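Below is a filled-in request sheet from our internal design queue. Each sheet records the structural input a requester submitted and the sequence that came back. We keep these sheets so that new team members can see what a complete request looks like end to end.

REQUESTER: design group, bay 2
PRIORITY: normal
MODE: inverse folding
CHAIN LENGTH: 74
BACKBONE (tokenized):
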């Protein structure tokens, strides 16, 4: 079963945060590794530079951990 990363804007009206929370709960009940990151002050799509950076860093971390990739060039 593939791990899942959910990135969600707390103020999203297109895909309300409760949908991401419900998905997380269902995945957990089915023993699927899942992580939900909720971005305060964000809606559907990232507008704040700090959120864009945080989301990208979280995706990189998730992929490194999921695929066992070690840091390169450090």
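RETURNED SEQUENCE:
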């Amino acid at each position: 079963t593939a791990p899942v990363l959910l990135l969600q804007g707390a103020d999203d009206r297109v895909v309300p945060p409760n949908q991401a929370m419900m998905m997380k709960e269902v995945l957990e009940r089915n023993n699927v590794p899942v992580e939900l990151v909720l971005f305060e002050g964000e809606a559907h799509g990232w507008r704040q530079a700090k959120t864009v950076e945080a989301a990208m860093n979280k995706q990189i971390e998730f992929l490194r951990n999921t695929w066992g990739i070690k840091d390169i060039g450090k």
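SHEET NOTES:
- The radius of gyration is 14 Å.
- The chain has a mean pLDDT of 94.
FILED BY: M.R.
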